[in-house]
Structure formats: structure tokens, C-alpha cells
Amino acid sequence: MRMITILLLCIVTCASLSCVRPNESEHTRSMFYWRTVLSVDSSERAILDDLGVTTLYVRYLDVKGYSVGSAQPQEPIQPGDQLMIKGLSIVPTVFIVPETLRNASDSGQLRSLARKLVRYMLEIDTVLQSAAERPLRTTFPRLLLDYDWTPNTRLTFFQLIRFIQEQLPSTSIESTIRLWQYRNPNLAGIPPVHQGVLMCYNMENYADQWTSNAVASTELLKQYVRPESADSYPVRLDVAYPIFRQS
To answer: ∠ CA 78-141-36 to the nearest 5 degrees?
Structure first.
């Protein structure tokens, strides 16, 4: 039986996707933090420092519902006993369950959801910053929205981004970009964000026993990301890739 353990999801921040080609420019490193309790102990902090990580994309909450009208923020992150995050930038991250934005036709409900999300995120941020004895803030320098939109939900998601931007005018809003969305911009559309995070993982079917590496495959990645088209995507991209163990 094949066993896969995802250890970390690392983000390399670069001026453009051209950083996938060797060059002399320096890059910064970030990590996704996808738990319900924010707790960083000394051993975890040592790993982050050894890897040169300066930023954590922290999942603040999920958005779940069978429609925009029923959507509710759920599972907000809580502060843990150990918060060794001094010197790390924290980027609030929201995961939106795919079906939440299906069959949306009421822009008023969408605007209401944006207001609700921003209010909840600010409340969560106040709790976390207080627990970590960090200065409180009334807005975020950056915010990441994680949503796997489809051709049918893209307009709704893009409008939600605009409504959130209205609530946070000084915030740099980012979005995750799946590989198929990157390769098919005419079909997927381009999100109205300041920058994106290209998700280079979960490339094949875990259930297929003949899949040699479902987490990441260099050969499969080459089918999506090609050097000659790396600079053509109109949104600045960072690259997220997994650090994992497979046996």
C-alpha cells in the first residue's frame, strides 16, 4: 500500500512565474498553515527558520453552504498555548467550499456574504494578535481566498472578490490558482486579484494504484507550465508546492 504524508505546503514568492526557470534572483518562502488551532512550538519554529520561511498563510475559517444565501463562516481558527510567531507575517486565508457559490443570482446576498466574511476575519485576527501579544490591526495588508472555481462559478467568485475589496480597499487580495485554471485562462477566466498562488500539487488520483506520485509530478507539471508561456499569465503568480514523504 502506498502511503503519502504531506508535511508542508511551501510557497515561493517571485516576481513572476518565470522564477520556475533558474536565475539569480532571490525568492522568499511562505507556508500554508491549515489547522483549526494556531500553535507554533519551538521545534516547528526551528523548521520554519531553517527553511527561511517569513510568512504563514493561516486558514482563518471555512465558508460552507448550499448557496450564497445559506453560506456561513465555520470552523474559525483558535489560538493555541504556544505562539512562537514573532517576526512572521500572517496572511489571513479563507477556504470556500465549492458548492457555496453555485446557483448564485442575487448580488445583494453576495455583498452581504462579503461583509460577513470581513467582519468575522477581523474578529478572528483580533483574537490571534492579542494571544500572540502583537499589535492589533483594523485591516490586513494581504488576504488569500482559496476557491476552486469552475466556468459556471467564476463570475460569482470574481464578484465576491470585488465586494471584499470594497470592504478592504487597502488590502492586497490574492487567490489560489489551480493548474487547469492557469492553462485554460479563456475558459477559467482571470480573477480580479493583485496576485495569485499557483497550486502545484494533488496532480493525480490518489485512488489509482498505478499512480506513482499523486501529490506531485514533474512530468505532469510540464504539461501545464511551459517556459515559453510562463510570463503570459496576466496576474503575478507565486508558486506553491508540497514538501512531503511518500512510501
So the answer is: 15
Task: Give 69-102 pLDDT, tens digit per residue.
Answer: 888 899 999 999 999 999 999 999 999 999 899 8
> Which H or E run includes 238?
strand 236-246
CA-nearest of 30, 57, 16 to 235 is 16
CB 245: neighbour CB atoms within 10 A?
Answer: 10
| Angstrom distances, CA of residue 216 to CA of 5, 148, 202, 206, 207 | 12, 18, 6, 11, 15
Helix, strand, coil percent values for the chain (each to nearest 5): 30, 30, 40
Q: Domains (ranges, CATH) in the chain?
A: 4-246 (3.20.20)
* Contact call for residues 48 and 88 (beta carbons, < 8 A): yes
**Cβ atoms of 188 and 181 closer than 8 Å:** yes
**Which residues does residue 6 pair with via DSSP β-bridges, in sequence order?**
244
The total of other beta-carbon atoms located within 10 Å of residue 195's CB is 18
